[in-house]
Each structure stands twice: as C-alpha cells, then as structure tokens.
Amino acid sequence: MTSPDLTPDHSSQEPQKPKFRIPIPPALAPLVAHFTQIYEICIWERGPRSLPSSLPMTLIYLVAYIGAKTVQYGLEKVWGGDKAWETAVYIALGDTLALLLLTFLLLFITLKLPRLPQALLALLATGTAVALLRTLTAGSLDLLSPVSLKTIGLYGTLLFPLLVWNVTIQASILRSTTEFHYIAALIVACLHAAACYMVLNGLAPPPLPMR
Questions:
Q1: Backbone angles phi, psi at 97, to 5 degrees
Q2: Left if phi > 0, otherwise alpha if psi is -120 to 50, otherwise beta: which for 116?
Q3: Are residues 138 and 77 in contact, defined by beta-carbon separation less than 8 angstroms?
Q4: Local confidence band at 154 (pLDDT 50, 70, 90 cut-offs)
Q5: Are 94 and 70 a contacting pair, CB within 8 Å?
Q6: In sequence order, what are the residues at sequence separation of 6 or more whose Cβ sits closer than 8 angstroms to the Cβ of residue 102?
Q7: CA atoms lying within 13 Å on the CB side of residue 53
C-alpha cells in the first residue's frame, strides 16, 4: 500500500503580487530613512541607539524643538499684550533646558554619558514631531469649532492624548538609554511634563476673554 503524497501542490496557488512601494529618488533616500527611524521611535518600535551620534543633526533638532515648542505654547494659550510670543519663547527655552538637564543628569548618574548624543537627538526629534502635531491639532480645533473650546473646557481635554503619547515616547527613550525599569522612566518623563506645565501656568499671564 503506497502512502499518500503529502507534498503541497503549488500549481493552483496564485503568484504573490509584489508590494507597492513609492519610488524614492536616491538623493532623498537617506533623509527618508532618517525620518522613518524617527517615526519608528514615536511608535515604540525602535530605540535611540539606532540613531547616529551627530552633533550637527542634534543642533538642528535643538533649534527645531525650540521653534516648534514656541509655536505650540503660543497657540495653545492666548496671551495678551505685546509680549505674547516673547513669553512663549521663554517657556519654550525653559522646556528645552529642563529636557537637556534632565537627560544629562540621568545619564551621568547611570554612567551612560557616551549615549548622550543619541538620547538628545531622539528626544528632540520626537518632541519636535509631537509639538508640530499638537500645533496642527490646535489650529484645526480653532478653525473647525463653532465655539471657542477654551471657554467650555474641552481644549485641554482634546489635546491630552497627545501629551500622554509624548510622555510615553520620552519614557521609552529614557528606558532604552539609561536601562531603567519602564515604570521609573515613565515617572521621570511625567515629572518633566509636570514641571513644564507648572512653568507654563506660572509665567503666562491670564488669557484674554473670548468674544
């Protein structure tokens, strides 16, 4: 008695179609690959040590972070007077200084200072991306809402998920860099967010009444 033939029959299977990929010019390939790495860090699929240790790139993202945070703080809270954006710049600089000092101290305490350039690059790049997204969201809410969301208390509530997302990204980067437990890294990231919030509300004058 012959045994049945268990070899799979591939003759009836359809050939797999190639995946569609957007053609990328060779000159833009490194830039696209870099932004892909930043995106994967934002969705917790990659750590900061995959980024290059590049001082010029870190300085570029430092300037971008300050600019994005200035616009974010300027749009999320309506300040009166001629010093409205000047106040936003001060708060953005305070936010940036707190992030730099916090990262340096953590890596100094854990004896991981050689990882500082990659950690700063990851924190600044992802922070810039989230700040730009918050700015676009805030602008969209102001344009699409028939009433001012600031007056009915929903403005901060709708932007809160983006704050939580940013905190979890920071915690993931700090955990990978310092090798802390994730809960400890999350607590540190929450402390940074709380410090920025207290500075924001302490330095900013009260908002103008909405018409």
A1: -65, -40
A2: alpha
A3: no
A4: low
A5: no
A6: 188, 192
A7: 6
Describe the crossing of helices 155-178 and 116-144 by its angle, rounded to 10 degrees. 170
User: Two tokens at 42?
Assistant: 């934002």
By the 8 A CB rule, do 43 and 30 touch? no
Query: Max Cα separation, the chain?
Result: 96
Q: Where are the alpha helices (DSSP H) in the chain?
A: 29-42, 55-76, 84-109, 116-144, 155-178, 182-203
Per the rule left: phi > 0, alpha: psi between -120 and 50, beta: everything else, 47 is beta
Domain ranges of the chain: 54-203
32: amino acid identity, one letter: V
Query: Which phi and psi (to 5°) does residue 91 adopt?
Result: -70, -40
Give Cβ neighbours of residue 156 (< 8 Å, ≥ 6 apart): none
> pLDDT of 166-196, one tens digit each?
999 999 999 999 888 888 888 888 888 887 7
